[in-house]
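Chapter review. Work through the record for Nitrile-specifier protein 5 before attempting the end-of-chapter questions.
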Amino acid sequence: MRWARLPQSGAQPVARSSHSITVVDDKLYLLGGEHDPRVPVGSDVYEYSFTDGIWRVLEAKGEPPIPRVAHAAAAVGSTLYAFGGRSGLEMGEGASNDLFSFHIPSATWTRLTPNGPPPPLRSYHTMTSVGNRLYVFGGCGEAGRLNDLHVYDTETNTWAALAAPSEAAVPGRGGTCLVPAAGRKGLYVIAGFCGRELDDMHFYSLMEYGGCCWKSLEAGGESPGPRGWFASATTPDGRLVVHGGLDANNERLADMFVLDVHA
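Structure tokens for Nitrile-specifier protein 5:
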């Protein structure tokens, strides 16, 4: 496995943390986050092309989420979903568990009203999709850092709680990222904050492919290094992309790395 830095030009987003990036086909979509501490930068949707390395801002319609930090986002087909996060300036202030969809072809936002109990209010969590389902992991809740796991079925518009991994296998954390493995057989948990910035990576196999098994992973090349509050996504060919975040010196980053899991 090996990391490499990606080129960036065009309407490049400012350095930020606590945002999200989501890959759909050959494009990457960035939403939210903070440049100044605890101040949401807005609700603009940025689009990045892997083909030419150019950023642009989309002209969105509908009801967007209010500006927020520490939310999570993932895509099913050509629809982007954004869940939770907080809008307040103080830790825990304005925490939410709302769910929005963004239809990319029409650039339209919709606020959803799902069935079933949603995940508790949280921020600094992570979310990804496998098939028609969204998975939400961890974050900061009222009782501290979490490592719980929830699933949202986009076809039935329903939330359900799943079994959490053990605290020994994957400690509760915020500012981490959960991304799917190639072939939809499992999920990667990457770095995050558990009292300090982490540079670890774990793989969690989904129940239908062998059941709830965790293992730690290591990679060569130029590592992104310890960081939290960053964003990550998986490309169609199974590579992992990491963008921005906070390093161990509490500095905001604008770098971007890609991990070839087959190298």
